[in-house]
């Protein structure tokens, strides 16, 4: 058995969860925050048999779409005394999903 962790944008979480549920996968959503942009995202946990992992990833890919480049204003501090607070435009890629697949050592429901 595997546990799929999928970090998805909030805009995509409903569609991904609906589609996974329709295909009879169990999913748990965690409200998470990206360390870089400090924006809310969602981490979905999906426990599945090994032979279903590809199907789960295909559903996530289909619902999350392509990655896109966006420009964000990142805060930074400069100056000798580190007292000048400002922002700097920076291009980052968002969208799609970040997926980790890990082995499950033991699974039971009691
Ligand atoms: P954030 O950490 O808020 O990152 C948002 C996007 O900013 C990233 O998109 C990436 O394009 C860019 N980015 C992240 N860290 C960067 C850095 N140190 N320098 C320059 N650009 C950076 P994604 O790669 O699609 O990641 C989306 C979210 O997935 C991340 O949100 C984070 O919550 C999670 N994530 C991505 N890779 C991860 C990893 N290796 N471990 C844990 N969480 C990860």
Structure, explained:
A hairpin with a 6-residue loop joins strand 2 and strand 3 (40-48). By secondary structure, this protein is an alpha+beta fold. The longest helix is centred in the N-terminal third of the chain and has 13 residues, at 10-22. Helix content is 23%, strand content 49%. The structure holds ligand 2BA. Ligand 2BA is lined by residues 7, 34-37, 39, 41, 92-94, 98. Ligand 2BA binds next to strand 5.
State the main characteristics.
110 residues, alpha+beta, four-stranded antiparallel beta sheet, two-stranded antiparallel ribbon, binds ligand 2BA
The gist of it:
The protein is α+β, with helices and mostly antiparallel strands. The protein contains two helices and six strands, in the order E-H-E-E-H-E-E-E. A four-stranded antiparallel beta sheet has the order 2-3-1-6.
């Amino acid at each position: 058995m595997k546990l799929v962790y999928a970090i998805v944008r909030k805009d995509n979480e409903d569609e991904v969860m609906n589609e996974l549920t329709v295909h009879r996968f169990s999913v748990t959503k965690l409200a998470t925050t990206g360390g870089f942009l400090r924006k809310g995202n969602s981490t979905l946990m999906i426990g599945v048999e090994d032979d279903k992992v590809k199907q789960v990833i295909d559903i996530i890919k289909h619902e999350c779409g392509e990655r896109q480049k966006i420009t964000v204003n990142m805060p930074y501090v400069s100056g000798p005394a580190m007292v000048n607070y400002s922002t700097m435009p920076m291009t980052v890629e968002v969208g799609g999903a970040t997926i980790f697949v890990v082995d499950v050592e033991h699974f039971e429901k009691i």
